[in-house]
Each structure stands twice: as structure tokens, then as C-alpha cells.
Amino acid sequence: MSEDPFVAHRSLLFTVAYEMLGSVADAEDVVQETWLRWAALVDAERRWHGLLAAEGRPLRLHTDAPPRSVAGRFFGLVLTMLGRTRGYPCVGGGSGVLTQQLVERALARGVELRLGSRLDRLPAARRAVIGAVSVWELGSIVGRTSRVRPDPATLKVDWTLDGPVPWSAEAARRTPVVHVGGPGRFVLFGQYSMADPSRAPAGKETAWAYSHDLQSADAIEAAIEALAPGFRALVRGRREERLAPGRLNGGTARLTNQLVFRPRFGRPRFADGVYLASMSAHPGGGVHGAPGWLAAQAALREHR
User: Fold this and answer.
1) What pLDDT, in 10s, does the model give residues 196-237?
2) Where are the beta strands (DSSP E) in the chain?
3) 52 and 166 housed in the same domain
């Protein structure tokens, strides 16, 4: 009988936690919490097996990890569980509100912001430099090559529409996010005004779509039109943006770039006095702020 993966890697997990936290007690607490969450995930995977077969597969396509891989199945499981147990909240007024509030909070605490200039070298700092840039950008500044594989190039399209999207499926008319297509032709489509009326005037709609499979806005629109006849006739305006490889997630979501498999075992310390705090750092992309928090904590521990 094969050894439990958590048991097999417990010593490595403790080492990484200790180097990040600097305390044996805190590291033990983290390992214990990880064990409890691992056990819960294993139990949930058994209980949710039928649900994952029906609903988890589209959610696996949110990343570049192969749907049948360990990482792909994990993301499908986590996203399904979060959707079923917590839901997916959206920010009233758009995600730009988060940036606005963070800036206001920083300014209120005396932070000086310098915008619109390019950095070719690290700025002078008394204690630490925290880099909220990609691992490749930070590497070029400090002269260190990164072997992190980027996530694929992505096409993003935004629309203003003369009315709600006329999906053939009734359920799709009532959900802010719709999965279109499957492996090799997947499109993630958002229509948020039903959750946040400030996104569009009454009777109108704003929408967006991402795809790292389809490489033209026309192809994306054709995929939507097939499931929502009349969609193209509603389009008032369209904006396209091509995101270069690595721009969306700061690195691949495959297992080779997760947890302790990340460079430097996932620790935020990038070089002497330099800490990586972007989506390229553990635990990766998402609206959670965890990479910045981990980098700040590491800097505070080492420069007390």
C-alpha cells in the first residue's frame, strides 16, 4: 500500500514553513493546519465525486493545467467547493474599486506613490524591497534568470451590449459567469450587471470574455453566438486586449509551479533584501492578496 502523500512530504513541508515563519511552534501549527485541510480535501473528493464529474470539469479549464492532471483536478475540486459552499462574490463598481481603496488607504498612512516611471534597477531601501511585479521582471532587474514557465497568452474581449445576452439555456441567463466550449475551445464569459447593477444602464449589459484557446475576437463571438443566437446583433462596442504569456497568472498553474515546487520552495525571499509579492509568488494569482502578505511578513521577520 502506497504511503499517504502528506505523510511522505511532511518533513519537507515543516522545513519550508519554518524557513518562512522562523518559529518551530508556528511551523508545527501550519503543518497541522495543512494536514487538517488535506484530510478534508480527500474526504470532500470522495463525497463530491459525482458532482465533480458533472460540474468540476469545466472549472478545471480556468487554468493551463491539463484537466486530467493532479493540478487540474485540484483546481476543479477547490473551485467547485467554493462555488457550492461560499459562492463567488463580485466587487460593486468593478475590480478597479479594490485598487482605488488600496491607494486611498496607503495615502492615508503617508505612503508616497511614484507612477509612470520605469525601473531599471532596484530603488534604495533601508530595510527591504517588495516587488509586486512578475518573477521575470524582478529577475531582469536583479540580474537573475527565472526558469518559471509562463501561463499561455490570453485574449480578453470586452463588450457593451444593447441588452442581456440571449442564451438558449435559461440557467445561463441567470448566472454572472458562463463557461463556453470545452478543452481546446474554452471561453470564460462574464455578465455581471445582474449581480452589480452599476455595471450597465437598465436594460443594457456589459460583458467580457477570456480565452487562451481561441485567438480572435470573431472566433469568441462565434462560439457565443452558437449558444446565444442574436448576440452579435446586440454589440454596440468591442475592445480587445492580447495578454502576453505570463501576464494573466504570473506563471503556469501546473504542478511544477505549485507550493514547494515553486522556485526557492515557494518562499517570497528573492534575493538579499528583495521579496517577490506578485501573483508569481505562492499561492499564485487570484484576488486574495496572499503573496503580498507573505512577502511583507517575511521582510518584517528578517529586518526587525
Assistant:
1) 999 999 999 999 999 999 989 999 999 999 999 999 999 999
2) 129-131, 154-161, 177-180, 187-190, 205-211, 235-243, 269-271, 274-276
3) no
Residues 209 and 177 in one domain: yes
Beta strands (DSSP E) in 192-298 are 205-211, 235-243, 269-271, 274-276
Beta bridge partners of 156: 210, 241
Per-residue confidence (pLDDT) for residue 191, from 0 to 100:
95
Residues 237, 262: one domain?
no
Nearest one of 277, 274, 273 to 288, comparing CA atoms: 277
> What domain count does the chain have?
3
Greatest alpha-carbon pair distance for the chain in Å reads 62
pTM for this entry? 0.73
166 & 295 share domain: no
- Check whether residue 262 and residue 130 sit in a common domain: yes
Cα–Cα distance for residue pair 64/130, rounded to 1 Å: 27
Nine-digit cell string for 176: 454572472
For 269, the domain range is 125-146+248-302
Residue 101 falls inside a structural domain: no
Res. 23: pLDDT tops 50: yes
Secondary-structure breakdown of the chain: helix, strand, coil percentages, each rounded to the nearest 5? 45, 15, 40
Q: Tell me if 106 is assigned to some domain.
A: no
Q: Could you tell me whether strands 129-131 and 274-276 are parallel, antiparallel, or unpaired per DSSP bridges? A: parallel
Distance, CA of 164 to CA of 178 (rounded, Å): 13
How is residue 110 written as a grid cell? 503617508
